[in-house]
Design goal:
The complex is a heterodimer of chains A (about 725) and B (about 400).
Chain A lengths: L6 H6 L7 E8 L5 E8 L12 H19 L5 E6 L3 E3 L4 H4 L5 H16 L8 E5 L2 E3 L1 H8 L2 E5 L5 E2 L13 H9 L1 H13 L6 H7 L4 E3 L4 H13 L13 H23 L5 H11 L5 H16 L2 H16 L18 E4 L3 H14 L3 E4 L3 H20 L5 H10 E4 L10 E4 L5 H11 L8 E4 L6 H5 L8 E6 L8 E6 L5 H13 L3 E6 L6 H17 L4 H7 L9 H8 L1 H14 L8 H9 L3 E3 L5 E4 L1 H10 L9 H21 L6 H12 L9 H6 L2 H6 L11 H4 L1
Parallel strand pairs in A: 2-3, 3-5, 4-6, 5-7, 6-8, 7-9, 10-11, 10-13, 11-12, 13-14, 14-15, 16-17
Antiparallel strand pairs in A: 1-2, 15-16, 18-19
Chain B lengths: L6 E8 L3 E2 L11 H15 L10 E5 L11 H8 L9 E3 L5 H15 L4 E9 L14 H4 L10 H11 L5 H20 L10 E5 L2 E5 L11 H5 L20 E11 H7 L5 E10 L9 H12 L6 E6 L4 H11 L14 H4 L6 H15 L5 E8 L3 E8 L5 H14 L1
Parallel strand pairs in B: 3-4, 3-5, 10-11
Antiparallel strand pairs in B: 1-8, 1-9, 2-8, 5-8, 6-7, 9-12, 11-12
Helix pairs in contact in B: 1-2
Classes of the chains: A alpha/beta (about 725), B alpha+beta (about 400).
Chain lengths: ~725, ~400
């Protein structure tokens, strides 16, 4: 017996890893049969259950059989549960990503609605026993059932859809707010995914997603017994969070409005899916189930066929796959063992390094600086930070003791003798960095790795005067060090494979994603930012008003406007970055005397007492207006945006020609991880392809075929 | 100050026993999970017991490796959600593992070292076939310390038939058939189920739920038994029909001092009177319960006539018959295994001892006229274990009435 999922959908999913559905009869305590359906793709926990067309067909087959048995009075209920540790990770996105057209997308969505919806139409009560990881479509599987149990040990329950450019479209947007109330549903469907937050089993129970929380050691046994109690009427299920009339009348629309405002201020209006989710949640107030599901069909089909989802999937894959297998990484077996770390410098950045290395590498860390006072200050700063970690419960007392004991300070470089990884974080000036490496080298074994955190200098030049330049590698962190996931690992022509491999292994142990880059000015992230900021300052320098420039790039959906970014990195640093890039590529990168003037005056944005940006500082406007050349023509927002798009396409094309990184994927990975560029733009190159900038700049596209949704392809 | 104390059996449970091997219901279930589920259910049944009052956890397994390795009592305690302050250890005395868990913690309670302990056992004979991984010392053979039969349990049972020719295969088969019939009747009457812990079973074709012993054969006939192979000897007497099978299962019990049970409001299902272990020739290991029972009776100051109920582990029918024969008890005496035994339920080695106690405790509640009961079992390499219990529901009036009826009937 097969389900009725259409043949052509099943054919589309020829290589689907099928999540099978197996029914077994289990006896209820009061007699009678509960059909227990297990969804299991037959793989271990590293390959969670997913639901593509053939998986849905398998589930439908079992549900149809159960429905027939229910009609004959053979069964009293049906429950669905997962394989060990996992209910499911959602719809099979590898299938969704290759749909040929919107119509097919819609049929995949409506098939899911039909199959999962059967859980409410079996003729007997249905249950879902949420035994483990439950994401997206798997959570909708649970929501379509009449009752849910959840295990105390479940690590993650979530709707990650809007993070990926989708919406929960197998009933989630309709069912969830009607189960747990609009505010809770907004949190689960819109807020959590954008913060990449998930719920634990107990949290899901608290929110009302599950009706009962059960201990994990006997979860299925207790769930079956609980189902028996419900079926026998011994347990009456209360749903305190379910919205009542008052909530629908008074609270619902207001909550949606508040959420919309928050979204607009946090992520702008470019990403479509969170707003589509808001619309569906709004509609769920009055819609019938059929209407709600139909609205989800249409909305999700639009998104699946759209460009933002295609770019999001591309970006998601980069962070999940390419980030874990960096292009150009030498054999990990070549990596040298790191048993002690030396940090040159005891300033803010160096202190962050010392703590991060001690926490993750679990080895002694030695810091040094010019004099004892600076060293003491650095150590004091580190101790304070350890105290903060302890206070927040991020480390326990034992670990705090270990960290405190393992980080020590010295002014004698001889103490670095047994360090096999030395990283410098001193003033960003070539001669200074050359000097500290030259000073420390005689104390080290010839195998010890010397890493520099430079952001703009030539790594090769920093190591040029050393006896063993092959051991020098760039190791460029992003601020704040503990939070930002990217490290640009810079390979010079002299860097040997063992050194590079060590750097990659250290980066991974630090739980960072490393991208290997060539020793070129600004590497990847700073070069892109310098391009954007240079263009922005140039536009202002030539008479375009600040506000026009500042909002002109909103279509990118970047986390910050150009001047917000300048304000964040600091005007001084920004000016320095522009100078460096202008010096390296004078014909393509602008420097800006005005920016130096603004930095000297310390003015740019106008902020209120709470730090909220209220426009531009009048003094800043005055400074730039003084120097606008006569006859300069201000750019329109449109002109400026196109100029930046074309400039970026040109610059990235050059970077690839010069082999700064292996592929456009690495550029995007750096921008997503190091600069927070959005998934819906795929980083930046899918965006540049789809707006035509690549064609204009170099007569081709970065990706072939371009990364676009089915609606744009056909 | 430590104070010597009376020891009581508060409660006990077991999992349904499964068929060992790939076709069995627990093939996809871990051994430690079986005993953990039994412990969790035991604690849930006794919510008055604060978990931090458990002084120790003794869990037995014959093969202490793989999913039965790593000091089971401690790992099971952690997995069952007991506080980290509760210690635990592993026990091995082959078939009498769980029984030894009980007597060991009972010793500590009697001495006053513990107030409350969990004692149980597990054997996943599918994951750990008997003797797997063991490396017997070659001296056993070279110095003829034991006969070659001693390590093959079926062969030791054939030896009992040799030694006692009047214990015929026909008597063994009849005892086995009655065990199956009594077990089926007990299930039918709902006697077994209250102390069974349902276990979710995992397989490649989905989860199921075990609520019954897997290998029961209620329709066993003498004719069918007569046709079974005798795998240990051509034309022998031991068959799969008159021996316990190879099984997976677990059991757990709550043992306490009488004072602690009273303080915590825990029920008392049995009171420990005495226990004993004894050795016999390894080649006839099934005779072990005879001397161990003699010893336990002697320590208790009782005679076999004082025992009103017997729960004897049926590793082999002939080995139970040998004990009955020794004490002059009929093969079909109604006091003996009234609800059937291991031939019907199964015998997952180190878990069976507590099963005997669980069934005796349930029978005590139904038989206030009975004062004392015996749980006993044979043990590989020539040992026997016996534990004598007193019925807290014992009522002298009921006993007198029962004696009167008996005389009338006579």
């Amino acid at each position: 017996m097969t389900g009725t999922v259409e043949q052509d959908l099943a054919a589309l999913a020829a290589d689907e890893v099928v999540t099978e559905a197996y029914s077994r009869d289990v006896p209820l305590p009061d007699g009678g049969v509960l059909v227990l359906v297990t969804v299991d793709n037959g793989r271990d926990h590293k390959r969670p259950n997913t639901f593509g067309p053939r998986s849905l067909a398998a589930l439908e087959r079992e549900l149809l059989a159960a429905k027939a048995r229910a009609a004959r009075g053979e069964i009293r209920g049906l429950a669905v549960t997962g394989k060990p540790f996992i209910l499911g990770a959602g719809a099979d996105l590898s299938q969704v990503g290759v749909v040929p057209d919107r119509a097919t997308a819609k049929r995949i969505v409506s098939t899911g609605h039909r199959v999962l919806g059967m859980l409410g139409e079996l003729g007997v009560p249905s249950f879902c026993f949420i035994n483990g990881l439950t994401l997206g479509g798997a959570l909708e599987l649970a929501l379509n059932a009449d009752y849910r149990t959840v295990a105390e040990s479940v690590p993650a329950i979530a709707f990650p859809e809007v993070f990926l450019g989708l919406i929960p479209g197998w009933g989630g947007c309709f069912l969830l707010p009607n189960l747990i109330g609009i505010e809770n549903a907004l949190r689960v469907i819109v807020e959590n995914p954008l913060k990449q937050k998930t719920l634990t089993g107990p949290q899901a129970f608290e929110l009302g997603i599950a009706d009962v929380l059960l201990p994990s050691a006997s979860f299925l046994e207790r769930s079956i017994a609980w189902a028996g109690d419900v079926l026998a009427g011994r347990v009456k299920v209360e749903r305190p969070h379910a919205p009542g009339r008052l909530e629908r009348l008074a609270k619902w629309d207001i909550a949606i409005g508040v959420a919309r405002k928050q979204l607009e201020s946090r992520i702008g209006t470019v990403p479509r899916s969170p707003y589509v989710a808001l619309d569906l949640l709004k509609g769920a107030k009055r819609a019938t189930k059929a209407e709600g599901f139909a609205a989800e069909d249409e909305a999700l089909a639009d998104l699946i066929a759209g460009d933002q989802f295609a770019a999001s999937m591309y970006a998601f894959d980069l962070t999940q796959k390419r980030a874990r297998k960096p292009a150009g990484a030498p054999d990990a077996a070549l990596a040298k063992k790191v048993t002690k770390v030396g940090v040159i410098g005891a300033g803010l950045m160096a202190s962050q390094f010392a703590l991060l290395f001690a926490r993750r590498l679990k080895v002694p860390v030695q810091i040094t600086d010019l004099d004892q006072a600076r060293v003491d200050a650095g150590i004091a700063r580190i101790h304070e930070e350890i105290g903060t970690l302890l206070g927040r419960g991020r480390v326990n007392q034992d670990e705090a003791n270990r960290l405190t004991a393992s980080i020590t300070g010295t002014t004698d470089l001889a103490d670095f003798a047994d360090c096999d990884w030395v990283i410098e974080a001193v003033f960003e000036e070539l001669s200074v960095k050359q000097q500290v490496f030259a000073d420390v080298e005689p104390h080290l074994s010839p195998e010890a790795v010397l890493a520099t955190n430079t952001s703009s200098l030539s790594v090769e030049a920093i190591g040029a005067r050393l006896q063993h330049p092959a051991r020098v590698v760039g190791f460029h962190f992003f601020n704040p060090v503990a939070v930002m996931p990217l490290i640009e690992v810079v390979r010079t022509p002299a860097t040997d494979d063992a050194t590079l491999s060590t750097a990659m292994t250290v980066a991974r142990t630090l739980k960072k994603n490393a991208v290997i880059v060539r020793d070129a000015p600004g590497f990847v992230v700073n070069r892109i930012l310098a391009k954007v900021l240079g263009e922005a300052m140039h536009a202002v320098d030539t008479g375009t008003p600040f506000p026009v420039v500042d909002r002109a790039l909103d279509a990118f959906g970047l986390p910050m406007s150009p001047f917000e970014l300048l304000d964040l990195v600091g005007l001084q640093v920004g000016a320095h970055v522009l100078d460096t890039h202008h010096a390296a590529f004078p014909e393509r990168f602008f420097d800006s005397a005005n920016l130096h003037a603004l930095a000297d005056a310390g003015v740019l944005l106008a902020k209120d007492d709470t730090g909220t940006v209220k426009g531009f500082d009048k003094r800043a406007i005055a400074i730039v207006q003084r120097t606008v050349p006569k006859g300069a023509t201000p750019l329109t927002a449109e002109q400026f945006r196109e100029r930046v798009e074309d400039g970026l396409a040109d610059e990235i094309h050059r970077m690839l020609e010069d082999g700064v990184v292996a592929a456009p994927e690495d550029i995007d990975l750096c921008l997503v991880l190091g600069a927070g560029y959005p998934f819906q733009a795929g980083g930046i190159t899918p965006y540049l392809d789809r707006v035509g900038a690549s064609e204009r700049a170099f007569g081709a596209t970065f990706h072939s075929p371009p990364i676009r949704g089915a609606a744009s392809r056909s | 100050m430590v104070e010597r104390s009376e020891v009581v059996f508060v409660d006990g449970v077991r999992t349904p026993f499964g068929r060992a091997g790939e076709k069995g219901m627990y093939w996809g279930t871990r051994a430690d999970d079986l005993v953990v589920k039994a412990m969790v259910a035991l604690l849930e049944r006794n919510p008055r017991l604060p978990k931090d009052r458990v002084d120790d956890v003794a869990i037995a397994a014959t093969t202490q490796a793989g999913d039965q390795g790593l000091t089971l009592g401690r790992t099971a305690a952690l997995l069952a959600g007991l506080p980290r302050s509760v210690p635990g250890y592993a026990i091995d005395r082959m078939c009498a593992g769980a029984m030894t868990s009980v007597t060991t913690v009972a010793g500590a309670i009697g001495f006053g070292a513990y107030d409350v302990a969990i004692a149980g056992g597990v054997e996943h004979m599918g994951h750990h076939p008997m003797g797997a991984g063991a490396d017997p010392n070659p001296r056993f053979v070279s110095e003829r310390l034991v006969g070659t039969d001693a390590l093959v349990m079926g062969a030791t049972a054939e030896r009992i038939h040799d030694r006692m020719p009047h214990l015929t295969k026909e008597r063994s088969d009849r005892f086995a058939m009655r065990s199956q019939q009594k077990a089926a009747a007990a299930y039918e009457a709902g006697r077994i189920q209250p102390d069974l812990v349902p276990v979710a079973t995992r397989s490649e074709t989905g989860w199921g739920l075990a609520v019954r012993d897997e290998l029961m054969h209620p329709d066993t006939t003498m004719e069918a038994l007569a046709t079974l192979r005798t795998p240990f000897r051509p034309h022998g007497r031991i068959t799969a029909g008159n021996a316990a099978g190879l099984n997976d299962g677990a059991s757990a019990s709550l043992i306490a001092s009488e004072a602690a049970a009273k303080e915590l409001g825990l029920p008392v299902k049995m009171r420990l009177v005495s226990f004993a272990f004894a050795g016999v020739e390894p080649e006839v290991m099934g005779l072990g319960p005879v001397p161990s029972t003699e010893k336990a009776l002697r320590k208790a100051g009782l005679t076999i006539d004082d025992i009103g109920l017997f729960e004897l582990n049926e590793a082999f029918a002939v080995q139970v018959l040998s004990l009955l024969d020794h004490f002059g008890i009929d093969d079909d005496d109604p006091r003996v295994n009234p609800w059937g035994g291991a031939i019907a339920f199964g015998h997952p080695l180190a878990s069976s001892g507590v099963r005997l106690m669980v069934q005796l405790a349930a029978q005590f509640a139904l038989h206030p006229e009975v004062r004392y009961g015996l749980t006993a079992m044979c043990i590989g390499l020539g040992q026997g274990g016996s534990v004598i219990w007193e019925n807290p529901h014992f009522d002298p009036k009921a006993a007198r009435k029962a004696r009167k009826q008996e005389r009338k009937a006579a």
